[in-house]
Amino acid sequence: MAFNDLLKQVGGVGRFQLIQVTLVVLPLILMASHNTLQNFTAAIPPHHCRPPAHANLSEDGALEAWLPRDRQGRPESCLRFTSPRSGTEANSTEDTEPCTDGWIYDNSTFPSTIVSEWNLVCSHRALRQLAQSLFMVGVLLGAMVFGSLADRLGRRKVLILNYLQTAVSGTCAAYAPNFPVYCAFRLISGMSLASISLNCMTLNVEWMPIHTRAYVGTLIGYVYSLGQFLLAGLAYAVPHWRHLQLLVSAPFFAFFIYSWFFIESARWYSSSGRLDLTLKALQRVAQINGKQEEGAKLSMEVLRTSLQKELTMGKSQASAMELLRCPTLRRLFLCLSMLWFATSFAYYGLVMDLQNFGVSIYLIQVIFGAVDLPAKFVCFLIINSLGRRPAQMASLLLAGICILVNGVIPQDQTIVRTSLAVLGKGCLAASFNCIFLYTSELYPTVIRQTGLGMGSMMARVGSIVSPLVSMTAELYPTIPLFIYGAVPVVASAATALLPETLGQPLPDTVQDLEGRRRGKRRQQQQEQQKQMVPLRTSAQKNGL
């Protein structure tokens, strides 16, 4: 695997790497905003029934005469009296009817949301979750479609397409005339955003030397966390849902324009058998990094000698079916699928219902973003010192334990329960940080983007299933927490079946993976033989 030596020859981590990594990572700030945008654009304002058109509020004794009260003495959200009542009669739910004339919303916190604009309350309240589920379906489809496409067409071309797709679909969603059109454009946005996150990691990792890959993964994680802070500030400053939707979508037009200047992955070129484009990309990077002389030393003959294995084994791109057909890839695929599913399943179970925490939705968004900072830093230290596998196992296991413990804490212990939820969310964020890097290092170049796409697909399955699990709270309030906690605990065991990648070069072909496994077995056999030699010598001496 000589590609890492070629990267060092053209500058290692130079001016090009710093510029391209920055520009590729920058859109992830707003990607984080899109993922949890509906916490604000689909927030549910306090509401109650609108009285009949013929009602004379001055004679009937004001609006309250039409509104029955719940057990806490608040107006019912979905019922009104058929005729005005007064006094103790207001606590009765007899002679009531649904809100046939619509609702009146408290716009003091949220001037406009999709809930208040399209009346997604009461009998239509499930449509609010449908919009988020359809967005996640889009993410699922995007991971499936664009993951394989990027392995065939390249990382750069797909990124350019995805930036434009996000800009157009997000802007159209902001001007959607009705709910079905809004859902359609959100689904299209989800497809492109999934691909952006995957290609961002892959393009950056494939241009970086071995010793810097963990830094890139951690940087991407912190940028995503910064996006959560940014969303809280933008949502507070721009509370109208259409303006907020437009604000987080329009910048992708700028990302689309400057993405034309990205340099395609030379590693992908070589694995595709395009040696001429590999040479051109490496020489251009050498020029940007101020290594013109080193770039001039490169030639087709040098690359053909250095990358002989990539050219002979990587001419044909592997299909997604290889993930199941090849035993080595199948093992990786099954184990990583469990990790992706469990991380996303528990993560979205915690973060997509911020209004239930009983505090300001803006404050809890900031807290959930703030906990990522120390969590991802600790994860980075573990990744760089102990390895990817311990970091992945510890983050999932600790997250599951926090959620399980939260299930047995009494409901009135609000501070304890919120603290455990925040800690669990931080561990899951660290798990996401690790799984992106770990997956990109485990899969070979010829199928890396497809593997990342399939992993992201399993994550979206988890995010789609997660809201359905919350419905089990109607049977018993803590059932969702026990399920959210048990899944990551069980999935953490899958990391024991995965190899460590700390300090290892990126594999380019399936043969590299198999060779690495054979080398590890051979090393273990040699160590066992070395241990047996002193025993045999001792036995011979005793025999003499």
Q: How would you describe the overall organization of this protein?
A:
The structure is a single chain. With 544 residues, the chain is mainly α. It is built from 26 helices and four strands. Helix 8 packs antiparallel against helix 12. The protein starts with a helix and ends with a helix. The model has no long low-confidence stretch (mean pLDDT 80).
Largest sheet: 2 strands, antiparallel
Beta-strand portion reads under 5%
Order of H and E elements: HHHHEHEEEHHHHHHHHHHHHHHHHHHHHH
Number of strands: 4
Report the principal-axis shape.
Answer: elongated
Beginning-to-end CA distance, first to last residue? 50 Å
Radius of gyration: 28 Å
Q: Can you give the mean pLDDT? A: 80
Point out poorly predicted stretches.
none
Number of helices: 26
Question: What strand order characterises the main sheet?
Answer: 1-4
**What structural class results from the helix and strand content?**
mainly alpha
Fraction of residues in helix: 55-70%
